[in-house]
Design brief:
Largest sheet: 7 strands, mixed
Bound molecules: pyridoxal-5'-phosphate
Shape: globular
Helix content: 25-40%
Order of helices and strands: EEEHHHEHEHHEHEHEEEHHHEEHEEEH
Strand content: 15-25%
Distance between the termini: 42 Å
């Protein structure tokens, strides 16, 4: 019998974590790592933050858990109202859950129940992008456009209608507009083919995360998607599980584009790694319709418990008082300029993209033709290992069967300073140097 009962993809080969502080983590051998990716783009306010810890302890002294059908909790009300404020009133209702997948799942179910209540039960299909990542539970996985994760479960996921994600890297500067128009036309054609009366919602990550390495879209694209939803009577779901809570320099990434979703999924940075807390936010009109049809038939035991909500409130307060949105913009620009310099130095960097402190680096075998490394070369894994050996954590992703290049995300906590970024860049520089030696 193995002495490791844990069952993860990493096969038990990771260092044992000891403790963490700010942007650093240490393993039990005393090695220090810079958290260049906030874990899984989660620890937005950094590790061991005294204000978050204190708020959690204070809440524990009152009550950790109360069940939502038995009690309201002031911290849940406060967090919900605060989130509505942060959306500047675009989204007026909040439903708490415990993870990003649950938030996406809730968004899908709210959309579905809304149309059932409206007498349009046939509106039950979702349109999502390929590639994309929306979570690991069956509904969210059905939205996900990422072959290696989907394939084993295809028989038991609903499966959405997949449309191409914009890919600005592989379309020359002067044809971006034409590319966006083509992608929008393809999206519209897919809706028409399925029958617009069957579509409940279009779902997307406003800035790409794990599956696309910081894939950007344009204003025209966002406006185009919004108007497709309006034209065909379906809803727009923004999956801001990764991009929300200041990661891109605004509270929510959709706020860069001047359009609003009907439903939004939020997780990761809301609990900032201190406690699992996630939310679905929605327009009031949808919730009113669902409530008048008997209420939202959905919920999880731990959802919106006082400890979770106290954690979320404390995280928001830290982002506010430490002016971390401004820091995400300033440090994001600083990080980006250094990554662009690395891209000039290393032929394996094909593209650098992203917004604020969500920056992705795409690795290519040939910079001129933008040819990806072969999937079996596992370039993402090699670079990530080289960085970890040098004490830098970055977030990797597998190439999509050679269709898209491997990439890594550089997404440090929003508390990061210019000198922290200098350290991250120095270690990344060394890692890329070792990577290029490996591939030469
Ligand atoms: N949606 C997006 C955009 C994500 O990046 C993730 C996780 O990486 C999820 C959903 C799923 O969140 P969780 O892992 O908390 O279930």
């Amino acid at each position: 019998m193995s002495d490791n009962a844990l069952f993860y993809l990493t096969g038990g080969n990771m260092p044992l974590v000891s403790h963490a502080e700010g942007i650093y983590l240490w393993d039990t051998e005393g090695r220090r790592y810079i958290d260049g990716c906030s874990g899984a783009i989660t620890c937005n306010v950094g590790h061991n933050h005294p204000a978050v810890k204190q708020a959690m302890i204070d809440q524990l002294d009152w009550v950790a858990f109360s069940y939502r059908t038995q009690f309201e909790s002031q911290v849940a009300l406060d967090l919900a109202n605060r989130l509505v404020d942060l959306s500047a009133g675009d989204l007026e209702k909040v439903f708490f859950v415990g993870s990003g997948s649950e938030a996406v799942e809730s968004a899908m179910k709210l959309a579905c129940q809304y149309f059932v209540a409206q007498g349009q039960p046939e509106r039950s299909r979702f349109v999502s992008l390929s590639p994309s990542y929306h979570g690991s539970t069956l509904g969210a996985l059905g939205l996900t456009g990422y072959e290696p994760l989907e394939a084993p479960y295809r028989q038991i996921t609903l499966g959405s209608i997949k449309v191409p994600s914009p890919d600005l890297y592989r379309h020359e500067e002067d044809s971006v507009e034409a590319h966006i128009t083509a992608v929008l036309e393809e999206t519209e054609a897919a809706i028409l083919e399925a029958g617009p009366e069957t579509i409940a919602a279009i779902a997307l990550e406003p800035v790409g995360g794990a599956s696309t390495g910081g894939r950007m879209v344009t204003q025209e694209y966002m406006e185009g998607l919004r108007s497709l939803c309006d034209r065909y009577g379906c809803l727009l779901i923004m999956d801001e599980v990764l991009t929300g809570m200041g990661r891109t320099g605004t509270w929510f990434a959709y706020q860069h584009f001047g359009i609003a979703p009907d439903i939004l999924a939020l997780a990761k940075g809301l609990g900032s790694g201190y406690y699992p807390v996630a939310a679905m936010m929605a327009r009031e009109e949808l919730v009113d319709v669902v409530n008048s049809s008997g209420g939202f038939m959905h919920g999880h035991t731990y959802a919106g418990n006082p400890l979770a909500c106290a954690t979320g409130l404390a995280v928001i307060k830290v982002i506010d008082t430490e002016q971390l949105l401004g820091n995400a913009v300033e440090m994001g620009t600083y990080l980006r300029s250094h990554l662009d310099q690395l891209a000039e130095k290393y032929s394996c960097i094909g593209d650098v993209r992203g917004l604020g402190l969500l920056q992705g680096v795409e690795l290519v075998q040939d910079k001129t033709s933008k040819t990806p490394f072969p999937a079996e070369f596992n370039a993402f894994e090699k670079l990530t290992r080289l960085a970890r050996e040098r004490g830098l954590l970055i977030y990797p992703r597998r190439s999509l069967n050679g269709i898209k290049g491997d990439h890594v995300l550089i997404t440090p906590p929003l508390t990061v300073t210019a000198s922290d970024i200098d350290d991250i860049i120095a270690l990344l520089d060394q890692s890329l140097d070792a990577f290029e030696q490996l591939v030469s």
